[in-house]
Specification:
Strand content: 5-15%
Strand order of the largest sheet: 3-4-5-6-7-8-9
Structural class: alpha/beta
Helix content: 25-40%
Oligomer: single chain
Radius of gyration: 18 Å
Shape: globular
């Protein structure tokens, strides 16, 4: 979509520069870019700020590029090693089996699952050594999309992904939809095989988030899909801020007018339909990084938090602790102590 392509139709020119300009103007400090061939971009928690993830001012930038398959991961690493995003720093996470699209079939269809795994491992290590790979993901279970992959195959290779995380010592970018019991069972068996992670785009119940947070090294990522219903907001109210990240998961998961959380949104941008594209407007129906501020506003509003600046700092710090513990901790601490916010 950020190339102007919608369902194979070119509706407008590529506009990543305009999208990033709006992000910086909105106070976005770091972005993690998740790259697939459909050009999805994700800015979530303070950097998840992974897609992530938090909000307010400054402009230090971090990219995370993610592929949805082995070939996409190779392409993602290639992008991270170029100047495609000018002089901004970049990182990327290598998925073993993505819960989206058809990547889950790759192991069995490769004819040699172990060779396929070793290729992913080699790619992840190569990127990590160059400072480009920052996480393993997106991986997990999605039982709302069994038409893409049956649950048995999802579970089999989700388990395998922990071996990749263990061997690389990288955190995990996790996905869980309508699968909390199996997801947490697999986590329990592998809790000593990964350093930390975030369960992004969380839409589960209070019981589900309690299960997730029983693992001391996990965080919960909140985006527009997490804020649809009054029940969603009740869950968000209860998640400890110290265990939370926020994200956009753009170009998807925007906060819509029908969402329960929309009443807390304060920041608005002019918008136009893609057919009437204007680079000074956001595209209707397309989420983008600047809108992470709206996620922050809804989280703060539904929890009755007046100091959004402090909330944003906490969310930002959470993200740095997980995804950039060596390179970015000192920078994060400096921002926090200096009273700056982040997006």
């Amino acid at each position: 979509m950020f190339k102007g392509l919608y369902h194979g139709k070119q509706c407008h020119k590529p506009d990543i520069a305009a999208v990033l300009s709006r992000a910086w103007s909105a106070g976005v400090d770091r972005i993690i870019l998740l790259y697939t061939r459909d050009s999805s971009i994700d800015s979530s928690s303070s950097v998840f700020s992974f897609n992530t993830y938090s909000t307010t001012v400054q402009s230090r930038f971090m990219l995370q590029v993610t592929g949805g398959s082995l070939e996409e991961s190779k392409e993602a690493l290639s992008i991270a090693e170029t100047d495609v995003f000018y002089s901004w720093q970049q990182g990327f996470s290598v998925p073993l089996v993505c819960t989206q699209q058809d990547a889950k079939w790759e192991f069995d269809e490769s004819g040699d699952p172990e060779k396929h795994f070793q290729e992913l491992l080699s790619l992840a290590k190569k990127g990590a050594e160059k400072g480009k790979v920052v996480a393993i993901g997106e991986c997990g279970l999605d039982y709302d999309r069994l038409h893409f992959c049956p649950s048995d195959l999802q579970k089999k290779y989700f388990e395998k992904q922990f071996e990749l995380a263990y061997l690389t010592k990288l955190p995990m970018f996790l996905h869980m939809r309508a699968a909390a019991e199996d997801f947490c069972d697999i986590l329990e068996r592998n809790k000593d095989r990964f350093t930390a992670g975030v369960v992004h785009s969380f839409t589960g119940s209070a019981e589900d988030y309690n299960k997730v947070l029983s693992f001391s090294n996990l965080f919960i990522g909140i985006n527009g899909c997490s804020l649809k219903t009054p029940e969603n907001l009740e869950v968000v109210k209860c998640i400890p801020v110290e265990r939370m990240m926020i994200e956009t998961d753009s170009p998807y998961c925007e906060i819509k007018n029908t969402h329960a959380g929309v009443h807390f949104v304060k920041s608005l941008w002019p918008s136009k339909k893609k057919e009437k594209y204007d680079q000074d407007c956001i595209v209707k129906g397309r989420n983008e990084p600047c809108l992470v501020r709206q996620v922050l506003e809804v989280v703060a509003g539904c929890r009755g938090i007046a100091d959004m600046d402090q909330l944003s700092k906490t969310l930002y710090h959470n993200t740095c602790r997980v995804f950039f513990p060596h390179d970015l901790d000192s920078a994060a601490d400096a921002i926090l102590s200096g009273g700056h916010g982040t997006e």
